[in-house]
Write a structure and sequence with these properties.
This protein is α+β, with helices and mostly antiparallel strands and 133 residues long. 27% of the residues lie in helices and 27% in strands. The chain binds zinc ion.
Length: 133
């Protein structure tokens, strides 16, 4: 699967966003090593802190299905569903990704007409991991 295809799936996942408070629709597509793709969308909540991001939604779906090994993640989002700037994974999501993925794990951020290619190590250097336990 190309990064463009994975980003297109992330864009489709935006349609399932539940974001009545921010109007920011975010979608994520998580490619497992076996080729399966798990989609996630942000799910907001009236009390805010229970809100879950699209990236963690995708990981929750994948891990709940038994997946543990992942090949890439694509993320995109925009106010009212219009993609403009870069919706990078937040700090909490970066930590969740690091539970399952190494520093060289590819993360693609789809913006308006551009795919920003990063690694988890770019986004979360010197992460806390289970390797120190
Ligand atoms: Zn997040």
């Amino acid at each position: 699967m190309t990064k463009e295809e994975l980003c297109n799936l992330a864009k489709q996942a935006m349609q399932n966003s539940y974001s009545p408070y921010s109007s920011c629709r975010v979608g994520a597509a998580l490619l497992a090593e076996n080729g399966k793709v798990y989609l996630g969308a942000n799910i907001e909540n009236a009390s805010f802190s229970p809100t879950i991001c699209a990236e963690r939604s995708a990981f929750a779906a994948a891990v709940s299905a038994g997946e543990r090994k992942f090949a890439a993640l694509a993320v995109t989002g925009g106010k009212d569903g219009e993609i403009n700037g870069a919706f990078y994974p937040c700090g909490v999501c970066r930590q969740v990704i690091s539970e399952f993925c190494a520093d060289d794990f590819p993360i693609y951020v789809l913006t308006k007409g551009e795919i920003i290619s990063l690694t988890l190590g770019d986004l979360l250097p010197h992460s806390f991991s289970n390797e120190v336990m």
